[in-house]
Each structure stands twice: as structure tokens, then as C-alpha cells.
Amino acid sequence: MxxxxxxxxxxxxxxxxxxxxxxxxxxxxxxxCVPEDAAVYINGSKMSDTTPVVINIDQKVATxxxxxxxxxxxxxxxxxxxxxxxxxxxxxxxxxAKLTRDPNASSSREKTLNEQQMTERVDRHSAGKTSxxxxxxxxxxxxxxxxxxxxxxxxxxxxxxVKNTNETxxxxxxxxxxxxxxxxxxxxxNSRNVTIEIKVSKRGYEDQVKRFxxxxxxxxxxxxxxxxxxxKEEPKPAKKTxxxx
Length: 245
Known about the structure:
Structural class: alpha+beta
Number of strands: 14
Shape: flat
Number of helices: 5
Number of domains: 2
Strand content: 35-45%
Distance between the termini: 70 Å
Helix content: 10-25%
């Protein structure tokens, strides 16, 4: 009943704003989840602190692939990928997700770590012995257009403990899986000084790079990003000698 009422209220809210939004070249899209009061991220950018909510999405974004993430403390974050055509946008769409409780969640990530994890010390010559190295996270990468090659590397500001790595090819977008970072020598203490670099590359488009702090990724139990690829500019042909400007 509550779920139905929330959808009705969202639909009414959309109807009231549709005319204004259309004239501004944006579309109102409703976002909701169970339980409510989750933050909404679209293509990696935070758009709202709570749900249910109606957000006016620029037409150029609304008619392409959108990676929508719902985050709520105490629950596992949920990411859904949606695409709408103009006909669907006129029908007042609702993006909906159901969150599940995170059994390891608490008000502080540090409280979920045992004493060994909190005090582990390591150097790069004795890597492979820390429990944080095998921490499992959710990986989610997507792009528009899809089919971009994904590369991954580790950038360390603590080289005595965690090594920098060369760029490694993973697969093509979209990628969604659960796996560990497998960063040798990683501890919760030094994770704040380690960054993951994700690069995507597709022929005819500019390469794009985004970086993520490992401590933050461990706290969120997820690393996700959406890339809006930009076409490369075609080089202008050189003018022949004597040709007028």
C-alpha cells in the first residue's frame, strides 16, 4: 500500500512539472526505493539526499544510458542502468530499486574491522599476508557508447608498503561483477594513501580516466563509474600553398 501511494504521489509531482520541464529541454524522472530516504546518484554525481524524489534530467542525459545508484546507510548500495526514449519520458517514468540490508554495516566502518585488520602492518617485500588484500567489493563500469576497453592500475603514495602497478586490461563496458582489489600489502590504515585508476578507451573517442580512493571504496563496498565518451575531433586538412583563408 505504501509503495503504491508513493508511486501515485510521484506521478502527480511529475505531472505538475512536466510542462515547465519540457520547455527547458529537461524531463522530470521519479526515483524511489524500498526502504525510502536513500541518496540518489546519476552517472556518478549525487543528485538527491533522499527518496522519493523527482529530478529534472537534461534531455541529452535522459535519452542516453543512465547509471542510477541508490545509497542508504545500513544497506547495500544498488545500481541500475536505465534508458528511455522520448515516448517513455512523456509517460512519467519511475526508476525503482529494492535495497537489501548489509550484514556488515554499522555507523562506522572501523567498527566492522577486527583488531588484527586495524593494526596490520606490512611492507611490499612481505605482501600477500594481510586480510584486507582479499576484501570483496562490487565493481560496476559502464559507458555511452558501450564497448569501451577498460584498464586498471594502482597508484600508491605508500610505495614502501603498496607497489604501483602497470596498466592492466580488464574487459569492455559494461562490466558488473563482485571481486577483490587484490592489492598486495593493502591494510585499512594505508588504504587512504592508495588510489585505483580506471581508464576507458574506444576508437574514435577521447580516452577518459577516473580515480578512486581505496579507503572510500572499502567503506562503500563498491567502486562504480559511468563514462560519457566524447568523440575525437577530426583534424582539419592542411591548406595547400597559395590557398586563400
